[in-house]
Amino acid sequence: MNLNAAATAGPPPDTFRTSIEIFDSLGSSHVVSVTFTKSSTANAWDYSITIPDADVAAPIAPLTGTMQFDSNGQLTSPDSATPVTFAIAGLANGASDINLTWNIYKAQTPRITQYTQPSAVSANSQDGEPSAQLIRVGIGDGGRVLAQYSNGVQAAVGQLAMASIRNPESLVAVGDSAFQLSERSALPAIGTPGTGGRGSILGGAVEASTVDIAREFTNLIVLQRGYQANTRVITTVDEISQETINLKR
Questions:
Q1: Is the domain of 37 the same as that of 74?
Q2: What mean pLDDT do residues 86-101 have?
Q3: What is the pLDDT of residues 74-89, one digit of tens each?
Q4: Domain tally for the chain?
Q5: Which conformational region is residue 113 in: left (phi greater than 0), alpha (psi within -120 to 50 degrees), or beta?
Q6: Three-state DSSP class for residue 194
Q7: Are 178 and 161 in contact (CB under 8 A)?
Q8: What pLDDT is attached to residue 196?
Q9: What's 11's DSSP letter?
Q10: How far apart are CA 219 and CA 224, in angstroms?
């Protein structure tokens, strides 16, 4: 986000307010509000983090602090080694206490700047999700088992394994394109698809038949004609033999 460097300390001082939805251990949502107030100190803003009184059994005092920026609009205080935490205890719905951590840095780079642009949030995120129901399970690329929930979250909940056998000709067909080990089969080497010479798994793909139906019909016609020709030969030989027997009589 950016805080407007052209803001004034008033009176009244310029303010900017934003909020983010968080979730407790029961999956219930709460809206945490953050108010920024331009400080009389140059390149400084005071902030206040609050949660609605209705969400807690007893009102919680706001978490306050000051953000200091340098002459280039970069955040200098608090620094990346000093996380901003807000303890939310005694939720009215009986959920566990929340220890909220505000990550205002990403890999030592501040996520908040102060330039002469309107104060605005460009993006926000949080690592909680509302309670949801499992609605679908599917197989993704690489054999990952993916679960999709009613809140739109998709998570990998499992991994399919594949087996490689040194002598596949020893397998016994049991029908429906399935095979099982026999007493002559080597010990299967089980691992992740796509490794160790094992095949790969494509999510959402349907295995195509390895048979070309046009070619097989052609082969069937050729074989049928060959069978008919052979039967004619047998019939002809039988007739010749019969004539030979009759001549002898």
A1: yes
A2: 95
A3: 999 999 988 899 999 9
A4: 3
A5: beta
A6: coil
A7: no
A8: 87
A9: S
A10: 8
Given this model, what pLDDT does residue 249 score? Answer: 61
What pLDDT does residue 55 have?
96
Q: Which domain holds residue 224?
A: 212-249
Strand 98-102 relative to strand 109-110, pairing: unpaired
Q: What angle do CA 108, 155, 194 make, to 5 degrees?
A: 95
Is 129 a domain residue?
no
Give, for 242, the enclosing helix (H) or strand (E): helix 213-248
State which of 115, 147, 167 marks the end of a domain: 115
Task: Verify cis geometry, omega within 30 degrees of 0, for the bond prior to 168.
Answer: no
Q: How far is CA 117 from CA 18, 128, 217, in A?
A: 16, 31, 73
Q: Provide the percentage of residues in the chain whose pLDDT is more than 90.
A: 67
Task: Write out pLDDT tens, residues 193-217.
Answer: 989 888 888 888 877 777 788 888 9
Burial class (CB in 10 A: 0-12, 13-18, 19+), 235: exposed
97 and 153 both lie in a single domain: no
Query: Are 228 and 185 in a shared domain?
Result: no
**pTM of the full predicted structure?**
0.64
**Taking Cα atoms as reference points, which of 131, 118, 139 lies closest to residue 28?**
131
